[in-house]
Design a protein that fits this description.
By secondary structure, the protein is α/β, with parallel strands linked by helices. About 35% of the residues lie in helices and about 15% in strands. One of its GO terms (biological process) is fatty acid biosynthetic process.
Length: about 525
């Protein structure tokens, strides 16, 4: 790639970070976005791990802004909704003219498995009776993610959905870079999203799986024992560097090279990583960038915290950089936010962009002692326990994303001289433009639309609706005992979580047992006001 590509816009919604500014604050902190889930009460079940990286407002969407009806918004995969909004906000913050549309803009995007469709819509009789299966598929299938963004944002370049497992979103960036380099387009938006269901739920650990038994990711550490799931979405806006300079865009970082390859059969099995393929990829990308090993300061690794994956990745890095004079700083974002599946690559890229922009390398959370299998490569590898300020005119970094099935992606970026961190704040101020309306199927039998903090609904109405949804009934007798009409302690906790969110109150489980009818329960809540 002879053409350098500027990153002129970005936006994200990651666990504990609903925008790039909050993401940067999280990365600098010792806090993890991986949190205890609402089903923590199941922790005494064998091998149940109540942890997940949970994103902010996964069901919020400003349908009216995009001319989408509430009914259509309800059946659209939340992954599509979220990425549409992020794409608009990121483009809008760059000054893009959606009406004039003089610049040909391409869309390169990826998303996770459409669980909303399979786990909720198909099990909802009201939905399946009302809509043809084809209509639901168009609203949820991965194939229509990029084209839907292009339609709603009036973008006329190529619109391509990119899928390669965990490396999908960084592969989307690579393809966007190629399209810009070939002058097919003037602007590109690239990124990905992944949401798994239930939203606020942990997982069952199985010996030998890639998941962590303790709900923490210990990337490159002696305690490395698996990864943790997370939800999130991120997007970047790209232009050729010469065009970004001519348009007077804010330049967050510059992509100097990007490469991709596949393992083929150079590994022990289909899902296993390949040392040889990773090494070849790093070598080729470094050569294309025009930099040498001594120019590279930092690599944001795939770093899942698995016993097999981390040592293979570090070995490949070492064999490429072993003659480097100074230490190479290695990190992984997954201990901070979890493994975001199709969105993991874009999370790593945006982290690196923010580091290059602010010239401070974040530490790797949960790192205490290096993995013994990585010890042979420690001569040039440095993993930070605290953030490090790099006072250099130019900083160069690599980002790696590896997909199950063997599609690997590596990108090399450099800092842009003269960046002003205050520009990031002005960029972010342009992002908060949507109102928050929640579109979600709360149960498999009922579909509702909720306006956040609606002042029009009484406590009685809100509690009654919650009981009906949780119990799966159309009517609720105000004097029947919750536990006599199908309620269980599990359903009671679900109902409490729903009500605490909608009423913005702290209702205790004991209230359910002491006031088990609707009449008594409503009176108890009203008495708390």
């Amino acid at each position: 790639m002879n053409q350098e590509i500027a990153i002129v816009g970005l936006d994200c919604n990651f666990p504990a970070a609903k925008n790039p500014f909050e993401y940067w604050e999280l990365l600098k902190s010792k806090t993890s976005g991986i949190k205890l889930t609402e089903d923590f009460y199941l922790h005494n079940q064998t091998n149940f791990v109540p942890y997940k990286g949970i994103m902010n407002d996964p069901f919020c969407f400003d349908a009216e802004f995009f001319g989408i009806s509430p009914a259509d918004a309800m059946i659209m995969d939340p992954q599509h909704r979220i990425l549409i909004q992020l794409a608009y906000r990121a483009l809008n913050a760059t000054g893009h003219n959606f009406e004039k549309n003089s610049k040909k803009t391409g869309v390169f995007s990826s998303c996770g498995f459409p669980e909303y469709f399979h786990k909720y819509l198909l099990k909802n009789k009201e939905i399946t009776h009302k809509y043809e299966n084809h209509y639901l598929q168009v609203a949820n299938d991965k194939d229509f993610l990029a084209t839907r963004i292009a339609y709603h944002l009036n973008l006329t370049g190529p619109a391509v959905t990119v899928q390669s497992g965990c490396s999908s979103s960084l592969l989307a960036v690579h393809l966007a870079v190629q399209s810009l380099s070939l002058y097919e387009i003037d602007v590109a938006i690239a990124g990905g999203v992944s949401i798994s269901y239930p939203i606020n739920s942990g997982y069952h650990y199985t010996e030998g799986s890639i998941l962590s038994p303790d709900g923490k990711v210990h990337a490159f550490d002696k305690k490395a024992n698996g990864t943790v799931r997370g939800d999130g979405a991120g997007i970047v806006v790209l232009k050729r560097l010469e065009d970004a300079l001519n348009d007077n865009n804010t330049i967050f970082a510059i992509i100097s090279a990007s490469k991709t390859n596949n393992d083929g059969k150079n590994k022990v099995g289909f899902t296993a990583p390949s040392y040889l393929s990773q090494k070849q990829l790093l070598d080729e990308c470094l050569e294309e960038s025009g930099f040498n090993v001594d120019d590279i300061d930092f690599i944001e690794g795939h770093g899942t915290g698995t016993k097999l994956g981390d040592p293979i990745e570090v070995r490949a890095i070492y064999d490429v950089y072993k003659n480097k004079k100074d230490m190479l700083i290695l990190s992984s974002v997954k201990p901070h936010i979890g493994h975001l599946d199709a969105a993991s690559g874009i999370a790593s890229l945006i982290k690196t962009v923010l580091f290059l922009y602010n010239k401070t390398i974040p530490h790797t959370l949960n790192f205490e002692e290096i993995n013994p299998l990585i010890l042979p490569y420690q001569k040039i590898i440095n993993i930070l326990n605290d953030p490090l300020l790099l006072e250099k005119d130019q900083i160069v970094s690599g980002v790696t994303s590896l997909g199950i099935g063997g599609t690997n992606v590596h990108v090399i970026l450099r800092s842009y001289p003269g960046n002003n961190p205050s520009c990031l704040l002005s960029h972010l101020r342009a992002l908060d433009i949507f109102k928050k309306t929640v579109y979600v199927t709360d149960t498999v039998e009922n579909v509702k639309l909720y306006e956040e903090n609606s002042p029009n609904n009484s406590v009685k109405e809100i509690v009654t609706e919650a009981w009906k949804e949780i119990l799966g009934c159309k009517d609720a007798d105000i004097d029947l005992n919750f536990f006599d009409i199908g309620g269980t302690s599990f359903l009671a906790i679900q109902c409490l979580n729903l009500l605490n969110k909608r009423l913005n109150k702290k209702i205790n489980l004991t209230d359910f047992y002491e006031y088990p009818t609707l009449r008594l329960f409503i009176q108890k809540i009203e008495a708390k006001e």
